[in-house]
Amino acid sequence: MVKICCIGAGYVGGPTMAVIALKCPDIEVVVVDIAEPRINAWNSDHLPIYEPGLDEVVKECRGRNLFFSTDVEKHVCEADIVFVSVNTPTKTQGLGAGKAADLTYWESAARMIADVSKSDKIVVEKSTVPVKTAEAIERILTHNNKGINFNILSNPEFLAEGTAIKDLFNPDRVLIGGRETPEGLKAIEALKDVYAHWVPVDRILCTNLWSAELSKLAANAFLAQRISSVNAMSALCEATGADVSQVSHAIGTDSRIGPKFLGASVGFGGSCFQKDILNLVYICECNGLPEVANYWKQVVKVNDYQKNRFVNRVVSSMFNTVSTKKIAILGFAFKADTGDTRETPAIDVCKGLLGDKARLSIYDPQVPESQITRDLSMKKYDWDHPAHLQPYSPTCIKEVQVVSDAYQAVKDAHGICILTEWDEFKNLDYQKVYDNMQKPAFIFDGRNVVDVKKLREIGFIVYSIGKPLDSWLKDMPAVA
User: Which pTM does this prediction carry?
Assistant: First the structure.
């Protein structure tokens, strides 16, 4: 039986290995992590991450050919294929701080693999890593190989949170990069055979190592670029009276552009987009391409601009101050159908409102209070380090209340900010919401989920990203 071990039981490692175990009953899959609470959660009825369909997959395979363990060295030693899916956070200090990827955890994993291995192995990059990481890992392994052969492959993950299981079941493509040597090509075929259990062979793309590594960064950069482009248009729409939804639909019907990722919002978030673009910027700068670096840097700048613009719109609309006013925050996750809050726009929006001394009442159906408190207490980029290494202040933010119900959040609020597109926010009884709010009652829709016309008829003053402005707002521009 082929044995696979995955180092890292996070958002990529856990779901990916669960699906491999489900689709390949003849392969033993073990997910290892040094964080005991996380592994305990994977072995319980309450998985550490929320993802539609994940529960069913894990429960079907766990104990059969899918296992979760803290005995990292044992399972790495026994594996034929080792996936490495550890964090690659943005560096917070030193060379490349704020842009370059911190490969501390990757290097540590590589050294451990070299130390404990007693047989030849295929080592697979599953984390998003900078171009040429494989070369660095290769050097570590070959200088500590004790006569053991290691073949390095890049197999970046393209799943989207919220649809991860669906994406893994039916991927647009599986990308495998390796050395173009006899040994490298043999390793590519071995990994290709795993995916071929359920993925059509014509969707399994094989490239050299550097192309595979760069393709992941490029894919995320292109997707984020589309979001920043439509968000830039949303500001222009508000200024001219155009409707960004109509503009998006019009350009999305062009087959060369397509309709996806053209929804205006308060900004993009998630674990990859900003991190990968900043990484791309750093690589461009290191390779003497400042013009290219500045081009991609602008995608992040527009995203920051959109979040600041939203906060400024809230404050300026409410008589230029939210001091001591209760603002309900509906949604904290960076998108619907996930509990992930990494780089969620909600963090910057909440901090911006708190900076003007607002009182926040936050509700999200999948994000626990402990996570929200930690996110609002943490410095930028610290979230992407393992939990046990995250600096965390136990002091709760005094002006933040986390509640378990949307109606509780909005009770007596002066304004509502919708920051995640959860379906339940579309279906709230807004007459009831209005009746229980301070007047005038404001709704700031950062995801374009509400029926603006209907809400205005109820009596709300509504701001919806990229939509024609409420007459109340027209003389209150969202400027810093």
Answer: 0.88
